[in-house]
Amino acid sequence: MSKILEIDNLSYRKNSKTILNHINLSLDSGKIIGLLGENGSGKTTLMRLIAGVNASSEKNIAVNGMTQKSKIKSQVSLSDYLDGFARSSRIDDIVRFYRNAYSDFSDEKYKEISEYLNLDASKRLSSLSTGTRGKLVIALALSRETKLYLLDEPLNGIDSMSRKKIISSIIRWKTEDSTIIISDHYVTEIASLLDDIVIIKDQTVYEVDSVENIQMKYHLGIEEYYEKVYEGGLAR
Amino acid sequence: MEYIDNIPIYLQIKETLYHKIIAHEYEPGSQLPSVRQLAVQFTANSNTVQKALKEMTEEHIIAAQRGKGNFITSDETIIGELRDRIVKSTLDETYDKLHALKMSNDEIIDSFINYVKQRDDDHE
C-alpha cells in the first residue's frame, strides 16, 4: 500500500510553548483514519501543519510523497469553518469562492452532496443553524478532488440527525484512492467508520493502530480504549 | 446499525448479511447491493465491507461475477449448512449455560419445549 502521509520528527512550538513534540507518523492511502485526542491536545494544529496552513519547515511532512508546500496544498482538503467569510455571505458566494480558489473543486460533486444534504444556496451564513453550517463545511471539503481530506471535528456541536447525514455523506463520497482523516474527541459515533486510529497524547503520537487490532488485542471498543489511554490505565 | 464495540465491525456485518441470506431477505442466486450501498447501509467504511465480503467469498456464500458485482450462491445446500452453523452456535451458548446449572439433557429439552409453547401462547 502506498503512503499518503509521512511525518518525520515534527515538533511545533508557539509562543515558546510546545504544542507538538517529535511527531512521527506514516499512514497508508485509501483509509479512513480517526485522529483522537483531548481538546487542546494539538489535533487541529497537526491538521493545519499537514495542510500547510501553519508554518513548518518543508522537510518533515510528505503528502503523497511530496514535501513542497505548494504541491501539498493541491493534495490536501482541510475543512474550513468559514470564519473568514462575512456573516452576510450567501452559500453560493462561498461556493464561488471555493471554485475560484481551488482548481480541483468539482461543481458536479458539490451539486450532488449539497442536494443530498439539502443545502439552500440562497441562504446567508448568519441564518444557518450549527447543523446546517456543519453540513456546508463538509460539502465544501469533500467537493475538492484531492488525495487527502482532513476533517477537523466535523460533528462537534451538531444535532444527531445532521450528524447521521454528515457521516453518511463521508461514506458516499469518499473515493477509493483518497484518504480521510477525521479528528474527534468523542469517538463512538465515528467508530464504525474508521480503519485506523491515531491517538495524540502528551504532545505526541501515543499510538497508531487498526481498530480491528484494538478490538482483538484488548477486547475493548475504541471509545473505551481511548479513555483508558487517557486515564493512563492501560498496560502496554 | 448498532454495533458491539469490542468485536470487529466486519465480523458483525458478515453475521448480519448471513442472517439476511438465511432468512431469504436476500434470495439465493440474487445480487448483493454494491459495496458502497452496503457501506452506507451499515455506516461503515468500504474497506470494512470489502473485508466482510472477502470472507463470505472464501466461505463460498457469495461469488463475484466479473463486472457485475457479488451474487449469493444458488446452492441451497450451502445455505442450509450456513443455517445449521448459526443454529449450532446459538444453541451452544444456551446449552453450556444450562449445563452449568447442572440441568440434565432431559430437563433442558423439557424446559425448551415449555419455553417455545409459552412464547407461542404469548404471541396469540
Strand order of the largest sheet of chain B: 1-2
Order of helices and strands of chain B: HHHEEHH
H/E topology pattern of chain A: EEEHEHEHHHEHEEEHH
Proportion in β-strands of chain A: 25-35%
Number of continuous helical runs of chain B? 5
Folded structure, characterized:
Chain A is α/β, with parallel strands linked by helices and 236 residues long. Chain A has one domain: P-loop containing nucleotide triphosphate hydrolases (Rossmann fold), CATH 3.40.50. Helix content of chain A is 34%, strand content 25%. Chain A has 8 helices and 9 strands. Chain A has helices at 43-51, 69-73, 91-101, 107-116, 130-142, 160-173, 211-218, 222-231; strands at 3-14, 17-28, 32-36, 61-63, 76-78, 148-152, 179-184, 196-201, 204-210. Chain A is globular. Chain B has 2 domains: 9-74, Winged helix-like DNA-binding domain superfamily/Winged helix DNA-binding domain (Arc Repressor Mutant, subunit A), CATH 1.10.10; 77-123. Chain B has helices spanning 9-22, 35-41, 46-58, 76-100, 105-123; strands at 62-65, 69-72. Chain B has a two-stranded antiparallel sheet. Chain B is elongated, with a radius of gyration of 18 Å. Classes of the chains: A alpha/beta (236), B mainly alpha (124). At the A-B interface, helix 6, helix 7 and helix 8 of A face helix 2 and helix 3 of B.
